[in-house]
Design brief:
Elements lengths: L1 H21 L13 E3 L4 E3 L5 H26 L12 H22 L5 E2 L21 E7 L2 E6 L1 E6 L2 E8 L4 E2 L5 E3 L4 E3 L4 E3 L4 E3 L4 H29 L5 H7 L1 H29 L4 H6 L13 H9 L35 H11 L13 H4 L3 H11 L7 H8 L5 H20 L1
Antiparallel strand pairs: 1-2, 3-10, 4-5, 6-7, 7-8, 9-10, 11-12
Helix pairs in contact: 2-3, 2-4, 2-6, 3-4, 4-6, 9-11, 11-13
């Protein structure tokens, strides 16, 4: 009984080890897109995640300078009239709160799944009536159905509110994109309700993070206006004791903040106004520039109230991806040319007869993707040589494969096959 236990123990341990080796990779570790993952796949960013520290610095620098100015003004002001100054502790606290919310919206936008559609490992199944005329230019990759070559249509049609909407086939993700989805060339993913790829947040903007993106740019706009106004009020407050020019010379930091926020508000403020228009008309940036719904009917447009409710008060759908799950997809088997035929149960007679039935010498075609060596190969001679080789076991299988896979020229390969066949015949006779 003791021996039996010792034998079963290693076998059980080996099985557990083999099973654990199959589950050593998670989905985020084998992800085919260009995204970058952190915290064990809990945070997903775009490939340009390095731009986020720059964005953070552009927001934090003027705010910290403004807060520092307010803080020192609180320390230096006349304690006999503390209520007379607009620069006080409430201003400092409110600035810090706005800055905190701005950073929260920034990282909620950049670190979450924007609505990535999982890609398929193979083309979608064939459906009757889907193939188009072979002369059509709107074709994608091929189906092989019952021995017949069929084409996957580039588009499919759906009806949304009595309006026909076409969805495209993605050759990269091997799927028909959902309505309003598009493939991001930077992240290399299809994204639901794709708006655009924002380099400032290092992430695609789509169905699951558009709300936070808008709140980020709106908060940034408010923060610019906030610092701009209070910097001017700080200068104007000094005019009670001196002229405006003298006050401006004394408050150099306020002038720098005024100039900085004035330039910035044109960028983030204009972007905020543009997205308010997009939300009110239920469009995305991609749709606005590509389809121009102003010139035709928008099938997704509702009333303005319902459009805003859809963006800000609807439930954010769950992610279609579980990045921390184990990747159970089988890896493609690599074909090794040095395989040993003797170690496999392959009958050379079956190979030779199958080659005689199916392989016919193709006409040389310079425009074909088939190598010229294979086009000019004498299949009849090669077939007879392989049949001779099948009658003996004295031929080294690796030598046979080196002859068949000879890439130098066809004549050398055929002569080597004939020599091997002659040698095998003489060995059989002996």
């Amino acid at each position: 009984m003791a021996r039996g236990r010792k034998r079963r123990g290693p076998q059980k341990k080996t099985a557990e080890t083999a099973e654990s080796n199959q589950k050593t990779m998670r989905i985020y570790q084998t992800w085919k897109g260009s995204n970058k993952f952190y915290c064990g796949g809990r945070l997903i960013f775009g490939p340009d995640v390095a731009s986020i520290p720059l964005t953070t610095a552009l927001i934090a620098a003027p705010c910290l300078a403004f807060c520092g100015q307010v803080f020192f003004r609180i320390l230096d002001r006349d304690e006999s009239n503390p209520e007379d100054s607009i620069v006080g502790l409430p201003l400092l606290i409110s600035t810090a709160i706005i800055l905190l919310f701005d950073f929260i919206f920034l990282y909620l936008t950049s670190s979450r799944d924007p609505g990535i559609v999982p890609r398929n490992s193979r083309p979608p199944p064939y459906e009757e009536g889907m193939e188009l005329d072979s002369s059509s230019q709107s074709m994608s990759i091929d189906w092989m159905v019952h021995g017949r070559l069929r084409k996957i249509p580039r588009t499919k049609s759906f009806v949304v509110d009595n309006v026909t909407v076409k969805v495209k086939y993605c050759d990269t993700c091997l799927l028909y994109r959902p309505p309003r989805a598009s493939h991001c060339s930077i992240c290399d993913n299809c994204v639901q309700k794709f708006d655009h790829h924002c380099p400032w947040v290092g992430q695609c903007i789509g169905l699951r993070n558009y709300r936070f993106f808008f709140l980020f740019i709106a908060t940034s706009t408010f923060l610019c206006i906030y610092i701009f106004i209070f910097s001017w009020l700080n200068i104007i407050e000094q005019t009670s004791q001196r002229s405006l020019l003298s006050a401006m010379k004394k408050e150099i930091l306020s002038l720098i903040l005024i100039a900085y926020t004035f330039v910035s508000v044109w960028f983030v403020g204009g972007l905020t106004i543009f997205h308010i228009y997009l939300i009110s008309t239920n469009q995305t940036t991609y749709e606005n520039f590509r389809y121009r719904y102003d010139k035709k009917e928008n099938p997704y447009r509702k009333s303005m109230l319902r459009n805003f409710r859809e963006v800000f008060f609807s439930q954010i759908p769950a992610s279609m991806n579980s990045f921390r799950s184990w990747d159970t997809n089988e890896e493609p088997v690599e074909v090794v040319c040095s395989m040993d035929i003797a170690a496999t149960n392959i009958d050379m007679n079956d190979i030779a007869s199958h080659a005689a039935e199916t392989c016919k010498p193709p006409a040389p075609d310079t425009n074909s993707d088939i190598p010229r060596m294979l086009q000019e190969l004498n299949y009849t001679t090669s077939n007879e040589s392989m049949q001779n080789l099948s009658r003996t076991c004295s031929v080294d299988s690796n030598e046979l494969f080196s002859v068949v896979l000879n890439k130098e020229n066809t004549e050398v390969g055929e002569k080597q096959l004939e020599n091997l066949a002659d040698n095998s015949t003489s060995n059989t006779g002996a």
